[in-house]
Specification:
The protein is mostly helical. It has one domain. It has 5 helices and no strands.
Length: 105
């Protein structure tokens, strides 16, 4: 039991580090595919539907680079908050998958 708690804590640390690394993405150019990916992730988590399949070109054409970076930032903030609220659940799920793959569960 204790070993599992340590694994979950380590996974939570890894997820927090990944969150921090995601902000480095804001220094790079953002295209429609980046926005589509973020929108699809949010829609999948919040409303369980994929509302933006194939919208990359439309998103690229609809916004200039500055607007795309700002929109990406806003979407990323929403994703980070979603993941922060659920970090323990996500970590426990990841550990369970890892244990299953190793034949431990």
């Amino acid at each position: 039991m204790r070993e599992r708690q340590v694994k979950v804590a380590a996974e939570m640390i890894r997820l927090a580090q990944r969150e921090g690394e995601s902000y480095a993405r804001l220094t790079m150019p953002v295209d429609g595919l980046d926005l589509e990916t973020e929108l699809r992730y949010l829609c999948g988590r919040w409303i369980r539907k994929d509302l933006f399949p194939g919208y990359a070109n439309i998103l690229t054409a609809s916004f200039n680079e500055t607007q795309r970076v700002f929109l990406f930032y806003l979407l990323r903030k929403m994703i980070v908050e979603y993941q922060r609220e659920r970090r323990r659940d996500i970590a426990e799920g990841n550990v369970s998958v890892e244990e299953r793959e190793q034949g431990l569960a």
